[in-house]
Write a structure and sequence with these properties.
Blueprint: H1 2-59, H2 65-87, H3 90-103, H4 105-126
């Protein structure tokens, strides 16, 4: 009887392990699919932005040579990034980042810090402002009770 109970426990543990593996596999595939969609969306957005930047550079051709050249240079860079995002799979990009991090750890650290800083600035810029008065704004007339005699 004890061996039968032990075997049942082993079978239950094995079934639980298989269910856990399946759940992890499903979650991993879901995340990979979502990241691939986001990568493709980012590539498309970068390509569109590069096209708009190039158009603006051509329209401002006579106004400022330096600005037009800088806009063309930026558009070229954005198109290269967009093309790279479209052509590479997610695993290949991760391998390249890992390789760069191993070969250039200082540059990778500073690039990661800069990306974190820019992401934080971007998120803060997109968040709604607090509804309270700005600091140093003083007292608003609606903050004062009308029951106070003057």
């Amino acid at each position: 009887m004890a061996t039968g109970m032990s075997r049942d426990l082993q079978n239950a543990a094995q079934a639980a392990k298989e269910q856990a593996r399946a759940a992890v596999s499903d979650a991993t595939e879901s995340v990979r699919s979502s990241l691939t969609q986001q990568k493709d969306g980012a590539a498309s957005s970068l390509g569109s932005f590069a096209g708009a930047l190039r158009k603006a550079a051509k329209e401002s051709d006579g106004e400022g040579q330096g600005v037009g050249r800088m806009a063309e240079w930026a558009a070229d860079g954005l198109e290269r990034v967009s093309s790279t995002l479209r052509s590479k799979d997610l695993n290949g990009m991760v391998r390249e980042v890992e390789s760069f991090a191993r070969s250039q750890p200082v540059a990778f650290f500073f690039a990661a810090a800069a990306a974190g800083f820019l992401a934080t600035r971007f998120l803060k810029a997109g968040s709604p402002q607090e509804s309270g008065p700005p600091s140093g704004a003083g007292v608003h007339p609606s903050d004062v009770s009308s029951d106070i005699p003057f």
